[in-house]
Amino acid sequence: TDTPVTVIGLGLMGQALAGAFLKAGHPTTVWNRTTSKADALVAGGARLAPTVGDALEAGSLTIICVTDYQAVRELFGASDVALDGTTLVNLTSGDSAQARETARWAEQRGARYLDGAIMAVPPAIGTAEAVILLSGSEADFEAHKPTLDALGTVTYLGADHGLASLYDVAGLAMMWSVLNAWLQGTALLRTAGVDAATYAPFAQRIAAGVAEWLPGYARQIDSGSFPAEVSALETDARAMAHLIEESEAVGVNAELPKLIKAMADRSIAAGHGGEQYPVLIEEFGKPSGD
Ligand code: NDP
């Protein structure tokens, strides 16, 4: 807990990150373009660095959390900012190509670089619920894990710096899919006077049940073989048609089920109607519209 750490970027998230380090007892140096955002942290014991260069010198471990990668480059691009010998942990949201490119750029300038993604809101930072994904050198991760543990549940994904961003968006895809499916069902049931709260626990059991299928389905994807053990894709496609018809009949939005059915139809047209649902990975695995 006496390892010094620097936090650059004190927006809503950066302030939460710096606050968690302070709470865990780390000597914490902070810097933000708008200096006033450091006030509460300074009152809580943080040191405000006068410049980014000074902030970097203060600790061998520097966390960056600003709006986007453009801002990261603007901050560290200045020639008087020496990155040599520092470890940068970039928790700014971005895509995998930006992460890999920034890693090369930082490493060329002598820094060690871990790219990260925060799967949590600021109030959760510092609790186990805050999942923080990191990718880059495993040795660098291990060296700083005891310090980073102050932020939440830190999870190492692999050496490819793009992994944290990819897992991040994969998680979002999962989150929105579950929520959208639930909203579709809720809209349908409300036409019959069933309120959202009544349907929610039922939907929760379905979502949990479906989640149980993932490891088995993953084995089909990884082996590239999709025997219809419980149902064939064409059976699913008939149920999709039913969902679309019911949605239209009761006057609720049918765009989402139509999108899903269009994908299944393409897969069936490609000859996969007799295989199991995860064969759709072949549709998901290529560019849109191909
Ligand atoms: P805020 O808008 O609250 O803060 C943005 C920060 O970036 C501020 O410190 C701002 O400085 C700084 N900044 C932006 N542009 C520049 C620049 N050109 N030069 C220097 N500093 C700059 O955003 P958050 O703190 O909420 O988010 C920060 C990152 O964390 C984002 O990438 C976001 O996607 C990610 N994140 C946020 C979550 C959230 O729930 N808030 C959840 C998960 C990830 P200044 O104060 O001077 O404007």
From TrEMBL:
Keywords: Oxidoreductase. One of its GO terms (molecular function) is oxidoreductase activity. Coiled coil: none annotated. Residues 160-285 form the NADPH-dependent reductive aminase-like C-terminal domain. Gene3D superfamilies: N-(1-d-carboxylethyl)-l-norvaline Dehydrogenase, domain 2, NAD(P)-binding Rossmann-like Domain. It comes from the Bacteria. Residues 5-158 form the 6-phosphogluconate dehydrogenase NADP-binding domain. Belongs to the HIBADH-related family. This is 3-hydroxyisobutyrate dehydrogenase-like beta-hydroxyacid dehydrogenase. It comes from Streptomyces violarus.
